[in-house]
Amino acid sequence: MMRFFERLVAVEIDSSASDEENLRLAAVALMFRALLVDGVVDAAEEVMIRRIVEDEFGLTPHEVDQLLADASASADAAPDLYGWIKLINGHYSHEEKCYLLEKLWQVVLADGVVDAHEASLMRKVAGLIYVSDRDSAEARRRALMA
After folding, report:
1. Please, are residues 9 and 29 in contact by the beta-carbon 8 Å criterion?
2. Which of 6, 76, 88, 112 has the most crowded CB, counting CB atoms within 10 A?
3. pTM (2 decimals)?
């Protein structure tokens, strides 16, 4: 499978950054939103985000740290999901969107608890990126098996 996350975006698009860099930022910012939505910053979820970024993007350790810092700041500052969603919908295939949901589920499931806010966020993201409940459930199943 292609390195999906190599194509991943910020709510505020950096016009000097490539589409790839902006998409990367958007995907990781969504992961941080999943981390923050339940009001608990769980270490296992933070570790999972770092692992996903390290595994998917082929970045140097410094670039990983910078992307994580930028995505965390974007997740804190963004009033909603729509800037990231617009980028994802404009650039991702259905398969890539399902893969993104799988990675988001890995973050949500990292602490072993899916709280109501996390479940709601996942339903919302799936709907906004036009992924069916069935495909979202399959992404969750794959995340559980990872």
Report:
1. yes
2. 88
3. 0.87
Asked if residue 140 is part of any domain, the answer here is yes
Which tokens sit at 36?
């923050």
pLDDT averaged over the chain? 89
Q: What angle separates helix 19-36 from helix 61-77, to the nearest 10 degrees?
A: 60
Which residues are CB-neighbours of 126 under 8 A, at least 6 positions away? 101, 132, 133, 135, 136
Q: 48: domain range?
A: 18-145
Q: Hey, is 140 helix, strand or coil?
A: helix
CATH of the domain at 74: 1.10.3680.10
Tokens representing 103? Answer: 């990675």
pLDDT at 38: 87
pLDDT of residue 41: 87
pLDDT for the residue 16 = 55
